[in-house]
Every structure is written in structure tokens, then in C-alpha cells.
Amino acid sequence: MISFVVGFVAQTDLTEAYAHLVGTRPGSSRRGVARAVYRQLFATVASKGCPQVMAIMVPINRASMAFHQHTGFRPGEQNTIDPDGLKLVKDYSALAEHRELLGKGLGDGPRIGCGPATRAMKN
Ligand SMILES: CC(C)(COP(=O)(O)OP(=O)(O)OC[C@H]1O[C@@H](n2cnc3c(N)ncnc32)[C@H](O)[C@@H]1OP(=O)(O)O)[C@@H](O)C(=O)NCCC(=O)NCCS
Predict the structure, then answer these.
(1) What stretches of 56-106 show up as alpha helix (H) in DSSP?
(2) Which CATH class is domain 3-121?
(3) How far does the centroid of ligand 1 lie from the alpha carbon of residue 86, in Å?
(4) Which of 21, 36, 68, 112 is deepest in the core (most CB within 10 A)?
(5) Helix or strand (DSSP H, E) at 104
(6) Is 44 in the pocket of ligand 1 (CB under 6 A)?
(7) Is the CB of 23 under 6 A from ligand 1?
(8) pLDDT digits over 51-64, tens only?
(9) pLDDT of 3-20, one tens digit each?
């Protein structure tokens, strides 16, 4: 295996999918393999009726953020605080555990990062 992605459809909102974990073997990085496995993820969740896919970033992981930016993920509307030029959701995982919440619309799907499941997680 040179690359993998673990994704799922939200149990609380069957129209919202998550890219949970992605990895590429270091010797195979920057050859487009994670991009290829994401294309497969997008096709799979779209075929299950999900118009958008979400990803939640730890802001220290700049490579992951660059990869997700490259593959079309954009910050959700909830992203508010802006330390070091990053738009993060404050206290998303726990107190002082800010996260970048990203979303990508699939096909003609709705604008990203603002679906009911995401809002529920925040409330
Ligand atoms: C993030 C990760 C999955 C990217 O895998 P990859 O197979 O190297 O990614 P790709 O080759 O498909 O990259 C596609 C594009 O994303 C961007 N990108 C990927 N890795 C990048 C990096 N380290 N720095 C900057 N941009 C990067 C680039 O724009 C790249 O296109 P380019 O190489 O033509 O410039 C890989 O670095 C990894 O396994 N990291 C460790 C695990 C991890 O942190 N996973 C994410 C959190 S779960």
C-alpha cells in the first residue's frame, strides 16, 4: 500500500461525509497518489448521496492543510479566529484546541462546511 484514506458518512446527517485520515508512504509522496485516493473517496461518497465532504485539520499540520487546499477544500463559515493567518473554529475539539474545518462541495452540491451535522457538532 502506498496511500490510503479513511472516510465516513456522518451518522447524524447522511448527506455529509468526512475525510477522516489520509496517508501516503513517505517515499511515494508528491506524486499525486493521495490526490488519486481522494478522487475515489469523492466518487464513493457522492454515489451515496453526499453533496459535500468535510475535513478537520490540526493547524500545526501545514502539509495536510496544503494538500486539502490543493484538492479543493475551503474553510467553512464557522471558521472565525485568525491566529497566524489561519481561520480556525475556536475550541472545536476542547478548550484551546482550535481546528480548521474545511469542506468541499461535490458536483453541484451545496456550499461546504455548513451542513446540519457540522452545526450540531458545534452546538
Ligand atoms: C498529506 C499527505 C497525505 C499528502 O500525500 P501525497 O500523496 O504526498 O499528496 P499528493 O502528491 O497527492 O499532493 C497533491 C498536492 O497537495 C499539495 N501538497 C501535498 N503535500 C504537500 C506538502 N508536504 N507541502 C505542500 N503542499 C503539499 C501539493 O499542492 C501537491 O501537488 P504538487 O506535488 O503537484 O505540488 C502526506 O504528506 C502524508 O501522508 N502526510 C502524513 C499524514 C498526514 O498528516 N495526513 C493528513 C492528516 S490525517
Answers:
(1) 62-70
(2) alpha beta
(3) 18
(4) 112
(5) strand 97-105
(6) no
(7) yes
(8) 999 999 999 999 99
(9) 999 999 999 999 999 999
